[in-house]
Amino acid sequence: MRQQSLPYTQAAPQYADGESARAGWSFSAGAGLVLSLVIGLLAWKGLILLRGYPTFILPAPELVAQRLIDELAGGTLRFHTGVTMIESLGGFSIALSISMALGYLLAHAPRLERVLAPQLAATQAVPVVAIAPLIILWVGADIGSKILVAALVTFFPILSSTVVALRSVPRELLEMAKISGANRRQVFWHVELPLALPGIFGGVKAGLALATTGAVVGEFVGARDGLGALINISRGLFDTPLMFVALITLAVMTLTFYLVAVLLERALVRWEQ
Amino acid sequence: MTSDVTSDKMTAICNLQSTINQGRIPMFRRMAIILLTALLAACGTSAPASAPTPSTGSGQSAAPDAPTAASAPTAAANQTLREITVAMPYIPNVQFAQFYLADKKGYYAAAGLKIKFDYNFETDVIQRIAQGTVQFGMGSGDSILLARAQGLPVVTVATSNQRFPTVFFSKVEANIKTPADLKGKSVGIPGHFGASYIGLLAMLYANKIKESELNIQDIGFAQVAALSAGKVQVASGYGNNEPLQLDQQGIKVNVINVADFYPLASDGIVTSEAQIKDQAAIVHGFVRATLKGVQDVIANPDEGFQAALDVIPELKSADAKTQDLQRKVLQATLPYWQSDLTKQQGVGFSDIKSWQATHTFLRDSGLLKSDVDLSKAFTNDFIK
């Protein structure tokens, strides 16, 4: 996951050339997505035909598709999706800014890191489902608590990849920059950040995927709005197709986030190729 | 079987330990192995604890107490007990003392059953019953109707709570005593689903109050803390639980009972249509044994509490204050099991009037999109 190799030794975007060359016959990323979707749908439908599951256990794909269309037309799904999106991106942004700043600090202050590392690791050791009820109790039941939960799960992967990426910048390059008269800020913007960016992006991508999980965990514990709340509501009504609609929306949302991050990564890390 | 596996484990552990003692393994690895050993030992001991007493049902309630005179011979004669799983819609709690006591006294064993308890969310309980992965569970009448509307073939075979237990409580100084007083107040419920939400809606329905006139907050299952911390003015709970917790904390509360305003069908023993069709005898045996447990707990709550302690080691090792609270919870649960109707018809009776009322409310509120055949949703066939 984490791209730690130095940019000039290997191309950062993983699935561009290397893999297709090995595979012998190549297809684009879009075709791959379509293919995997088709395989998934066929397996889903096949399972139902084979085992004859009732709708409340596993609804048929066409039933879920119809429900998805209905829900999209109704507007409530869009509303719930919007809420979860705001919570995830809000949490992610907070986590990103804190962990970038803290990551820079820790990368340059090993002694500070030794003091803080246990606390930071502890935030990750506590299962977020277990503290989400407490967070709701402390912060309140509205959107803020969900943003906080999302930030909490997102924070650590970004932080640790930032620290590792900054540390892996070759010392000689830093020395050289300093000898050439660059100040700390210039060193950061022109040497450290560009070189650490591929590694940081590893954490960013993992963090984005986790942010939706965090938001949903928060909603699951107690919320009126959001896809996690919709899952709870559909559960209460024994409406499994609606639950699938919420789950699919969630998956599409997370995938979109990830895709945006990949595109951003390509745009920002392009210079190195 | 289990004990063989365990003894293998034990031998392996002993071998490992002697290797460690002989100093053949470096220190840090020793630490890891010791940790692993502790884990293995923990897995190993949980199963065989119940082995010496096959007459008592579940592994958890395998109390060392001698089986009662009544149950001992049947259990000895009946070696092949049918294993069934009963899913509770909550954590292990004294509110299920009737099951624990029926198990402890060997009523299930006498019916040829070996009981395993497990604990889920109510909706999951009902889905698993419909699916057939568990045979029995507890679920509330409104859930049964909602589930049946979605094609889940579940049936209530005995009603435990004759009154819907959801209540809304608030600090006395807030002076919130009637449903009308809830207008404009912040009301904390776990979420827009389940007994709290349904209870709230039914109460508002009965009093012609709109949902939008209240400030409903989804606070998760932290109602007591939310209320005592002043995060919400009113919170929901079970009449036999949360208000007692607050009382113990010295917080005086006003309680509004949903059941005083609308007769919703409440918690009962639920099974599947297939279970009734294929194994009616098991359903009958299970229901009768449980109802015998209900009668015993009513007659002697202390005995019921003891049975719960045996099944819930966390409670057994808890401090006196916690135990005292749970004793009160059980005491407050007993009135829910009884009504004028149960005096005539026996405990476990399901009242068609409450089912009709539940159906009317769910239809009118739009939660139920189509009519549900009530004659298939519950039955009193098994309580006698």
Which descriptors apply to this entry?
heterodimer; A: 273 residues; globular; disordered N terminus; B: 384 residues; alpha/beta; 3 domains; 49% helix
Present the secondary structure layout.
The complex is a heterodimer of chains A (273) and B (384).
Chain A: H1 18-23, H2 29-51, H3 61-74, H4 76-108, H5 110-125, H6 128-139, H7 143-167, H8 171-179, H9 184-221, H10 227-236, H11 240-269
Chain B: H1 2-21, H2 27-46, H3 71-77, E1 82-88, H4 97-104, H5 107-110, E2 113-119, H6 122-131, E3 136-140, H7 141-149, E4 154-159, E5 166-171, E6 186-189, H8 194-206, E7 215-218, H9 223-228, E8 234-238, H10 242-248, E9 253-257, E10 267-272, H11 273-278, H12 280-299, H13 301-311, H14 313-316, H15 320-337, H16 340-345, H17 352-365, H18 374-377
Parallel strand pairs in B: 1-2, 1-3, 6-7, 6-8
Antiparallel strand pairs in B: 3-10, 4-10, 5-8, 5-9
